[in-house]
Amino acid sequence: xxxxAWKTGTTIVGIVYKDGIVLGADTRATGGSEVxxxxxxxxxxxxxxxxxxxxxxxxxxEKTTDLIASNLELMRLSSGTPSRIVTALTLLKRLLFKxxxxxxxxxxxxxxxxxxxxxxxxxxxxxxxxxxxxxxGSGSLAAMAVFESRYTEDLDELPAIELVRDAIxxxxxxxxxxxxxxxxxxxxxxxxxxxxxxxxxxxGYSSTYKxxxxxxxxxxxxxxxxxxxxxxxxxxKNVKPKASEGSSSAGSIVTSDMDIAA
Length: 262
Hints:
By secondary structure, the protein is α+β, with helices and mostly antiparallel strands. It contains 6 helices and 12 strands. The radius of gyration is 33 Å and the shape is elongated. Residues 248-262 have low confidence and may be disordered.
């Protein structure tokens, strides 16, 4: 039996707001039904103005984004111009299509270039869609429910961050494959980028839960308060029960092989 790859079992989201892009992800990585990493980083760097969220097999998402980030760096050194979103999109699509879906990487690509903010959803087989907001991963339905009910065009930055945070929280609390913390990355039109690693500890701290619980005092009963309900004597299997007093039957004499031999 071949070993199974670790899968992120993820909730990743992205939205376009008035001044840029907000990307969000949870931080749980699972191997089957076990949590193997509680603080996995799923928002990957591609370029100073481009980031990518990854869902699927953890190794595939990391190595795919590392390779494309390296190629984009070489292109920037060669051309002397900032990377464009469509360039990263084309490189990712071609790589994934070449492997016909065997590279298990479902990606949300977001960034800002000279043409403005762009958000793309890339499937493992290489297809893509440009969208104003999108979700992927095992918790995508819960996150999409939050977007569908609350998203509006031209959001300000703070409401956009709060919306992404709530979408990730919906995935964390409604999907067993998602959990732990909320990571958020903001890419702005003015060229600045903010990475909020562990923006929120969604499940809370253990110390908070411990402080709310008052353990009962240790029960030490005073002597004499414990009653003996019943007593059972189980003799050893080689020992025969003694005869009643006054009887001299042969059954009251216990002999062994050694006694007989003597």
